[in-house]
Amino acid sequence: MRFSEPPTPAAEPSAGTPEPSANGSGPSVNGSGPSVNASGLSPRAVEWYELTPIEVPEPPPLPTGPLNAAQAFEALYTSCAPALVRQAHLLTGRRALARESVERAFQLAWQRWPEVAVDPDPTGWVRAAAHEYALSPWHCFRLTLRRPEPRSSPRLSAALEQQGVALTDYALIDVLRTLPPPYRRALVLYDGLGLGLPETAAETEASTPATAGRLMYAREAVAACLPELADPVELRRRLADAVTGEGPWVVRPGTPAAVRVRGERRARHWTHAAVAVTALLLGAIALTVHTAPDHYEPPVAKGTPIRGVPPRPALGPLSQEQLELRARLRSVLAGGPERLAPEIR
User: Fold this and answer.
1) In this predicted model, what pLDDT tens digit does every residue of 40-57 receive, in sequence order?
2) Coil, helix or strand for 80?
3) What's the structural domain count of the chain?
4) Residue 284 located in a structural domain
């Protein structure tokens, strides 16, 4: 069975919802108060992904007239985001990364809304984008994702069997994280969402025999670590409960307006960065053109020393005969023909 839309949550308190204690020091009704550890230690602040409201409000009614782009986006987000966050949580085992993956997928969908709006299956389009981001291999280089995520113990108000389900769900997530990403994704799509084998193969971009082999390997790996999930029916039920949020822990997404605003702001930042890099590149090109030589200048050959040339002799003092000859020439030339000593008239 294929789940096109997540089921509407009931308006009754879930089993994992914290209740106020007798002395009034427990969590508040709206889920914003501190949680209490099962061991009775001092309370700590509750993270956003641990908040479980007692009464889940119904989604706002859609307008009766034709929807604009923003209203259609909010309708798609409201119907798909909760289930997608839980799917990403099964794939990654991290609540913060699961929410980030879904937000990035919807931000990408908002940027390409003309394409998503006419897609036959917009839910599948966003789901594929969220799963691709959640299973991206580049996350291993993020320092914040190298540290293990803290896990809260089951609620004191939850029933014993539901506390056991919570621990089993954590164990199931740990087993899923040991599988390769394609195997993990195929198992969640086929057994968790109930997609058919051809649809699962198409979404994971693999052939049908390869997808069937991945499913068999993933089921065997889960059964080896969790014998109580060796039955495929029980495994499907447990994965479906985790995807639909019927377990004692719930991962909540953000609001559609906030996601859309953050996506637009992120797109503007990338646009400004691209413009700045382009301007810097054009400035560097202009500077290079201005300072580059405009004609060819042959290089000056390196000089080589010349050896064997006699040194230039220096003239010494004149002898007595040379002095007399110089005096006689000067006296004769001074009184000689005019061609030798022209007269100034």
Assistant:
1) 434 444 444 444 443 444
2) helix
3) 2
4) no
